[in-house]
Design goal:
Elements: H1 2-28, E1 30-34, E2 49-53, H2 56-59, E3 67-70, H3 77-80, E4 88-94, E5 99-103, E6 106-109, E7 112-113, E8 127-131, E9 136-140, H4 150-153, E10 156-157, E11 161-170, E12 176-177
Antiparallel strand pairs: 1-2, 2-11, 3-4, 3-11, 4-9, 5-6, 5-8, 6-7, 9-10, 11-12
């Protein structure tokens, strides 16, 4: 009889530890996300599944070109009409202190043309010049003309960052890193 109780206790411990580790990993290390819109075409397609790495931005800041996941500021609801806050995924373009301008269908950072071989098409709009505030980022979708992004609603504070998209794991034929 003691062996049966011991087996139940061991099973309970194993399940408890597994749940604790799963919650801990998802909260602090990595989590899976999917792409719900066309705002990041051609880099990311609707229903792509990604692994989001959450540790690096605790120790360093995003780099220009990183594909980041974040909670949008309240102003983002102006162009989406969303009633619930959902995480967004966009590309970090403007870093703290940068002067960003979109003119003549191209993005300029500190008066230098930004080479962008990842966008769907050149932007049809004009924007800025604006200076990115401290501890904030300007994010834009790769599908510039069809993205509710920072050119509509402004900047993302560092504390809103969730993590960096690192790997697409679905569909299998597009498996790979997002460098």
């Amino acid at each position: 009889m003691a062996q049966t109780n011991n087996n139940w206790l061991e099973a309970f411990r194993t399940l408890g530890l597994s749940a604790f580790l799963a919650i801990g990993v998802r909260t602090f290390v990595a989590e899976a996300r999917y792409i719900p819109s066309e705002s990041m075409l051609p880099t990311l397609e609707v229903n792509d599944r990604l692994m989001i790495e959450k540790l690096s931005y605790r120790f360093k800041t995003p780099q220009r070109g990183d594909v980041i996941v974040f909670m949008p500021p309240d102003e983002a609801r102006l162009c989406t009409g969303e009633t619930q806050k959902q995480a967004y995924i966009k590309r970090a373009i403007g870093l703290p202190g940068d002067v960003v301008e979109v003119k003549n269908s191209q993005v300029y950072i500190n008066n230098k043309l930004l080479k962008e071989d990842y966008i769907q098409e050149s932007p049809y709009y004009q924007y800025g010049p604006v200076t990115v505030p401290p501890n904030s980022y300007l994010v834009l979708g790769d599908n510039r003309n069809n993205s509710c992004d920072g050119h509509y609603w402004g900047f993302v504070p560092h504390e809103n960052l969730i993590g960096r998209a690192t790997v697409r794991y679905w569909p299998f034929n597009r498996f790979g890193t997002l460098d």
